[in-house]
Amino acid sequence: MVARTIDPPPRLGDSDADAVFRALADGTRRDILRRTLTGPQSISALAQRYEMSFAAVQKHVTVLDRCGLVEKHRFGKEQLVHARVERIAQASGLLAEFERLWRDRVGRIDLLLDGPPAERASDDPTNDTDTHP
């Protein structure tokens, strides 16, 4: 049996990352993205969920489409919107890089503060294991 490995999605470039996170900074766009992750949604069905005009919802979808977080497809008279999981994985990968960086830094700070276990034991004034003459 040969195990298959899944290649990670290509890394987001700086301008793509800017566009993705700028789009995700808006709550309506994040909500549209969540709804389209469960399945394709028509723009008119999405527009019924928000207290804003159809045109305003369409503009939010266009912003998400331009940065690659969703795709639009015509189905009859309607445009269906669905999330692009690969782009979301790219954004998640970028955040995971930052998380690894910070976890590594926090780990090194912890090591500096704690010191090696042997030094901690000898520095601890409540430690009775030392024998004093």
Provide the succession of SSEs: HHEHHEEHH
Query: Remind me, CATH topology of the domain at 14-87?
Result: Arc Repressor Mutant, subunit A
Mean pLDDT: 88
Shape descriptor: elongated
Tally of separate helices = 6
Q: Order of strands side by side in the largest beta sheet?
A: 1-3-2
- CATH class value of the domain at 14-87: Mainly Alpha
How many strands, what sense, and barrel or not for the largest sheet? 3 strands, antiparallel
CATH superfamily descriptor of the domain at 14-87: Winged helix-like DNA-binding domain superfamily/Winged helix DNA-binding domain
Which structural class fits the helix and strand makeup?
mainly alpha
- The helical percent reads 55-70%
The CATH architecture name of the domain at 14-87 reads Orthogonal Bundle
Number of strands: 3
> Could you tell me the strand content as a percent range?
5-15%
Query: What is the gyration radius calculated from CA atoms?
Result: 25 Å
Distance between the termini: 66 Å
Low-confidence stretches: none
